[in-house]
Amino acid sequence: MAVSRRIQDTPELNLIPIMNLVTILIPFLIMAAQFVQLAVIDSTLPAIGPPQAPEETPDKPPLKLSLAITGNGITILGADAVLYPAGAPPLAEGEARSPTIPCGGGRCRRATDYNWMDLTRELSKIKDMYPDEQNVILVPDGDIEYEVLVRTMDASRDDKLTGGSRDLFPFVVIAGGAIQ
Amino acid sequence: MALKKARRMRLDAGLNITSMMDMMTIILVFLLKSYGTQDISVAPSEDLQLPVSTTQAPPQIAVNLIVTKSRIIVDGVHVLTLIKEEDKQHPGQERLAVPKDEKRGQAILPLLEVLEVKADSAKNDGERLAASGTDQHAFKGRLLIQCDKKLPFSVLREVMYTAGQAQFSEFKFVVYKQE
Question: Above 0.90 for ipTM, yes or no?
């Protein structure tokens, strides 16, 4: 009997001032909340200026890695001696060289039609040969969507296929592409 | 009898706000977690859907150039309306383009004019601040570019060329960060 009276007499905590505080805080926090995170991809324009004479003859020919992005796929370009150490495969007369990473159905309409995993894999092999190289030049066609460009930069930035995160070619230069 | 009634009324009057406090606390924690201060803001719309990327670099303050499916905007000011013209490579299809009378070669004239003004004022501000001892505000030719993900590269190329003519050479493409 005495116990139940004591429980009944315990004063209840007055939560109303805390409720007031929380109610004021919530609108402020809603205003400052960010539900999407933004990031940026760095890129530079190709430098225009007088050609500079190389200071010394390098042991290896320069890579000058370029990715030509077209509606048929992505072609990895560089000095032939680099990409084809045993010589470029011969082509029949009048035959155009097919893209290194061709599209699944022959023609890519959306960013998801390109084979990004294969591109990263191929670039990873080139990185193994040229561990010091950091630059890649993108040469997209005029009708290539901006999203494809971003996905190409993602695929050539780091190698996530092997589990780790090895930098491949993080410095991107976007070239003008072919003028039609 | 009257005493009993009064006691019942007093008991009914107390609102139990404990469950509401629980809810508020959860909302508060969620909002504190998503609290963030970023230097730039994006107003997504039907015409401006940024692509998603795996990059981690944070955005910085710079001149903000937005290219949507219908127009070009610099620092919130409308500069140019884009048009749809027939795609020569794929007959029957349309693609976005800059009106021919607004271009000289590859340079987009109204955009070039606006960007040159921005570059000049940024350079003046940089020089004034450099004179007062702070060198970190020097003009670096930095340009934040927000583009719709469906924008054809032909338009982007002209925008980049024009920016290059106005001495902006360091581009930062704004994207949504992949979680």
Answer: no
